[in-house]
Amino acid sequence: MTPHDVSQASEAICRLAPVIPVLVVDDPAHARPLAQALVAGGLPALEVTLRTPAALEVIAEMARVEGGTVGAGTLLTPDDITRAVEAGARFGVSPGATDRLLDAAEDADLPLLPGAATATEAMRLLERGYTVQKFFPAEASGGAPALKAIGAPLPQIRFCPTGGVSPSNVGVYLGLANTLCVGGSWVAPADKMRAGDWDAITALAREASRLPRG
Q1: CB atoms < 10 A from the CB of 131, how many?
Q2: Is there a contact between 135 and 154 (Cβ–Cβ < 8 Å)?
Q3: How far apart, in whole angstroms, are the C-alpha atoms of residue 25 and residue 81?
């Protein structure tokens, strides 16, 4: 898969819904009902971060949920990509980008959202052919004003801002011309997962799925 193909596939995933849930799941038993709740609420693209020992098992379980498109987040190494694809991930997300990571994603035919926080990082990815990128950490990097400023000289790049995106600022991000979608964890609160309150998570997902995009 070429960088152009990667970006086209990533854009298609980003256009599935205005929000990609960023999920940190400790208990594999939560995987399937959580995915079902989010998909039922209109959020089919699910990012499971590789931050827990259960992450790969969670991806494997979520990959079986009809209507869902599960991906792996916090991809840092080529080995992460190999293990994520073997578990069933259909896209990947990284906080940054290295040549080895990009090579591995392209070799594995894995659509990837590589992270960029500055104009230089975004330009380097664009030079390689990546027109769809993750803006991370969004709020710590200047928030929506910074993303808007980057978009002025680089209008050919579209972003998924992640990191500090919440109900209080999501509308500002989604209103930007260079935002395809956002990544956010608020649609799957840890306390709701622990309580098994899947109806509440579906309601949060449904509200997020109806957010307007610019």
Answers
A1: 17
A2: no
A3: 18
- How many residues would you count in the chain? 214
- Cβ neighbors of 133 (< 8 A, separation 6 or more) are 113, 114, 115, 116, 122, 125, 157, 158, 159, 160
**What separation in angstroms does the CA of 38 have from each of 44, 45, 98, 158?**
7, 9, 31, 24
Q: Which residues are known catalytic residues?
A: 47, 134
pTM score: 0.97
What are the tens digits of pLDDT across the range 19-60? 999 999 999 999 999 999 999 999 999 999 999 999 999 999
Give the H or E element holding residue 71.
strand 69-73
The identity of residue 198, as a single letter, is: W
In order of start, what are the domains of the chain with their CATH numbers? 3-209 (3.20.20.70)
φ/ψ of residue 116, rounded to 5: -145, 140
User: Nearest 5°: CA angle at 72, between 10 and 188?
Assistant: 100
Query: Do residues 122 and 141 make contact, with C-beta atoms less than 8 angstroms apart?
Result: no
